[in-house]
Specification:
Blueprint: H1 15-37, H2 40-47, H3 51-57, H4 61-84, H5 90-107, H6 109-122, H7 129-153, H8 162-178, H9 180-187, H10 194-212, H11 223-226
Helix pairs in contact: 1-2, 1-4, 1-6, 4-5, 4-6, 4-7, 5-7, 5-8, 5-10, 8-10
Length: about 230
């Protein structure tokens, strides 16, 4: 009698499940230790595969690291591009974008830790950064620039340079999380607790409104509304 062999995780029988399990384990390992400190045997153990199978799906550690970056940056870019596609007026769209960006960074600690490590590595010869920038950063920068220019043309935004304003806007969000350990030590509170995150989100939206919006213009979805 013929026997039926069931596919299981950790074999080549379910390639997508096995590959995704390895990838998720890699994101966790590289987010915690970077590519230099990350260990493929630890990734294989968490993914419940042997190292030979890991290398069957990803030919080497650098390839696996690149795939982990694609996962982290791709997930964020996909979400934020959906926000940019919403049919909203410039003021409401920019506040919606910043609020959604803040929420994404807050709710995806592994993604942000991995992204931070790659940003630090980018200045020391990362082979992935140019591809990451072109594939994920450029579409977002282009979309944000178009919103800002549309707001300026409509007389709703101050005449700012998107090349300068967008990095400042991103930094308002990102630095709060990268600097959280310093803030916790200096100020004596947990900056990542829900109450403090809500306060920071509202403060970021208020800052963007004050820096970008012309005073006296009627707002749809202003800072106080969008912060809720």
């Amino acid at each position: 009698m013929a026997t039926v062999t069931k596919s299981r995780l950790g074999t080549r029988g379910k390639p997508e499940e096995t590959r995704n399990s390895i990838l998720h384990a890699a994101v966790k390992e590289f987010a915690a230790r970077g590519i230099d400190g990350g260990r493929t045997d630890a990734i294989a153990r968490v993914a419940h595969v042997n190292k030979a199978l890991l290398y069957y799906y990803f030919k080497d550690k650098e390839t696996l690291y690149g795939a982990a970056l694609n996962y982290a940056f791709g997930q964020q870019a996909e979400h934020m591009l959906q926000v940019l596609a919403q049919p909203l007026p410039p003021r409401e769209k920019i506040l919606t974008y910043v609020g959604e960006y803040f929420d994404f960074v807050a709710s995806h600690p592994l993604n942000r830790d991995l992204a931070q490590r790659e940003m630090m590595r980018a200045g020391h010869g990362s082979i992935h950064f140019q591809r990451i920038a072109k594939q994920y950063f450029q579409p977002l920068f282009k979309g944000l620039s178009e919103i800002i220019r549309a707001g300026i043309a409509a007389g709703e935004f101050r005449p700012v340079d998107p090349l300068q304003f967008i990095p400042s806007m991103v930094a308002l969000v990102v630095f709060y999380f990268t600097g959280a350990p310093i803030l916790k030590a200096a100020a004596g509170f947990d900056p990542l607790c829900p109450e403090r995150l809500a306060q920071r989100r509202a403060a970021v939206l208020d800052f963007i409104s004050a820096a970008l919006f012309r005073p006296g213009k009627a707002q749809r979805g202003g800072a106080s509304e969008s912060a809720q």
